[in-house]
Amino acid sequence: MTTNQPEEKGPLRADARRNRDSILKIAARHFAAYGVNTSLDEIAREAKVGPGTLYRHFPTREHLLCEVLHERQEELLSRRDEASAKPCAQTALRAWMIALKDYLNAFNGLPQPFIDAFEAQASPLAVTCSTLVTITAEFLSRAQAEGAARQSVSAPALFLSAVGSAFVHDKAGKYGATPEQIEEILAFGYLNSETAQDAADLPYPISKTGAPHD
């Protein structure tokens, strides 16, 4: 999985490489502890570099986040391969969606940068976002071909549903729900099978603003 990275003007000097690696190590810890909106100045201070050095390596917060996510991307791609190997398309899609949700929930607040990247192709996360939608499309197409998923479902919509699930994952308990219940609704909907089939045949209402409504 690739990301939009800041341009490098050749190999880094040993001291510059050490600074960069230190920034990434500290940033990973800060993102995990304080979320994606953690202070970049605090990251620079703990890494014993000036803010200018941090921004020279990582021009924006999103560039830094891209680099920190690389290790987690390797784990996600491994889970993609495991899901692809499953003989049942429905099970494979379910496994991928759970892996995707876990990836998007790696740090508190992480879904928001992906929403921004989904809307603005200039974001450093845009390539990652596009790749995730493409992978989701592969699983979805297989499930649709086997009749396990509705033809009306699109890969971008399914990706955004995973983003939404990740957004509320750590908040579910506050409202008397569990992450597992959210994931179940994501995968199977909230209607029983007969009602769901009837509902699938109905046109989806659109509000005057163009947004779907009940």
UniProtKB/TrEMBL annotation:
Binding region for DNA: 39-58
Protein name, entry field: Transcriptional regulator
Keyword Metal-binding carried by entry: no
UniProt keyword annotations, A-Z: DNA-binding, Transcription, Transcription regulation
Stretches assigned to the HTH tetR-type domain: 17-76
Organism of provenance: Advenella kashmirensis (strain DSM 17095 / LMG 22695 / WT001)
Pfam family membership, one: TetR_N
GO MF terms, alphabetically ordered: DNA-binding transcription factor activity; transcription cis-regulatory region binding
